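Quick one, probably user error.
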């Protein structure tokens, strides 16, 4: 009976850990719009923000003032990920087909890099954001 009870407890905690969120605090390093003949630095945007990652999505704050301008909606759907002992790689898309990529070399660094890119509009521009993120 004790073994059965321990087995039930172990499976409960294992299931909980599979659904756990990874939370990152991110500091913006590059935030720019690239046009054909010039680059616009987006200086009046957030300097830091928080993201949450689970197996199916990456979520930003619901508050528009607490997430970067490039993030129109607070959620990106995860389209692929690799989570192994040495690295974490996450790919995703938002409703406008903007792409998001979070990468972390676990054996080397205590931080991850987040990149978000999207088409800036009908003017042919591309918006890029690169942030350095620490989990907590």
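Nope, works fine. Designed sequence:
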């Amino acid at each position: 009976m004790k073994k059965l009870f321990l087995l039930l407890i172990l499976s409960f905690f294992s299931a909980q850990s599979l659904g756990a969120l990874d939370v990152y605090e991110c500091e913006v390093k590059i935030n720019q719009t690239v046009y054909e003949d010039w680059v616009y630095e987006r200086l009046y945007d957030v300097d830091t923000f928080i993201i949450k990652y689970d197996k199916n999505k990456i979520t930003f704050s619901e508050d528009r003032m607490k997430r970067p301008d490039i993030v129109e909606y607070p959620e990106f759907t995860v389209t692929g990920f690799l989570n192994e002992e040495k690295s974490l790689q996450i790919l995703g898309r938002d409703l406008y087909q903007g792409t998001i990529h979070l990468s972390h070399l676990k054996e080397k660094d205590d931080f991850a890099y987040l990149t978000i890119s999207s088409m800036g509009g009908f003017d042919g521009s591309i918006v890029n954001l690169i942030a350095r993120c620490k989990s907590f």
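Residues 21-135 form a domain with the Porin fold (CATH 2.40.160).
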